[in-house]
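Quick log. Single chain, no ligands specified.
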Amino acid sequence: MTPPDLPGNAPAACSARRLRARLRADGFTLAELLVVLAIFGVLAGVVGLNSTARHEHLLEVMEMQVREAAARARELARSTHEPHGVLFDVSSDRLGIVDERGALVQDPLTQSAWVVDARGSTFGGGVDISSADFGSAGKAAIFDSQGVPLAGGGVTLRAGDSLRVLALDPATGIFYLP
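-> predicted structure:
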């Protein structure tokens, strides 16, 4: 049994050819698919670059925090004539300014302990304090009563695939990028 002809249309065989042609026309050509894949590739590259840029930004902010902490510890050591330092807690990714007894120093602005949490909201949970080594002082950059570091050393920071190493100049007490 053949399908009936519809009024005003070609016979059923022609209708089937038109249907197949329409289905082919409604699909995508290889060129169109390649263009879409190329666009997705570009977008993925942009997202990847933004991720790297974000990690670099997080490391820059953390580097400023480390430098600020060292400057504050040096200043406190000079003004109080007592040793102060910056203690790096690698296991919890935090750093804090400590006095000669190792007690955390109070931040004059917040009236709480002077601590920077590298995994906290300021850093989007993305900075890892990978290592810290300051010779005999261990994981603390200690400044004597004159604000001079007891030893040089360094700290390694990581955010994603980005890495930043900061070295402490034993003469000036300033962190720098080696």
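The CA atoms of residues 9 and 15 lie 8 Å apart.
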